[in-house]
Amino acid sequence: MSFTVINEAFLCDWCGEQNPPSKGTCRNHCRNCLCSKHVDAVFPGDRKSLCEGKLVPIDAYPHPKHEIVIVHKCEQCEKVIQNKKSEDDNFDAIIALMKNNAETIFF
Ligand SMILES: [Zn+2]
Ligand SMILES: [Zn+2]
After folding, report:
1. Nearest ligand atom owner, CA of 36
2. What is the DSSP code (8-state) at residue 7?
3. 106: part of which helix (H) or strand (E)?
4. pLDDT by residue (tens digit) across 9-22?
């Protein structure tokens, strides 16, 4: 089984950020506002979903094996999708997401 890794420059539909191709990882969300579009049905990069709703970041947490994982939720169909952060993601936005959920993790 294989899936296509999409790693191309794209213009964010929501904040207008011009995202260059990511180094090393597959970029699947905007590095500035962290939003994405619901285009993958099953595998990252499969582009099989017909939803195309806005994927909004709702949570972020450090993954024991990878680096930080960002949790996205689709505004349209409410599907929850987890993505690895890219190295040039807006780290302040990620920290803010982690703080939002700090109570449930640490207390
Ligand atoms: Zn954006
Ligand atoms: Zn969706």
Report:
1. 1
2. -
3. helix 102-106
4. 889 999 999 998 87
Give the list of residues 6+ apart from residue 9 with CB closer than 8 angstroms, or none.
Answer: 18, 19, 20, 21
Tell me the CA–centroid distance for residue 85 and ligand 1, in Å. 14
Nearest to 62 by CA among 4, 105, 29: 105
pTM: predicted TM-score of the whole model, two decimal places: 0.79
Judged by its nearest atom, the ligand closest to the C-alpha of residue 33 is 1
Ligand 2 midpoint to CA 80 (Å): 9
Confidence at 41, pLDDT banded by 50, 70, 90? confident
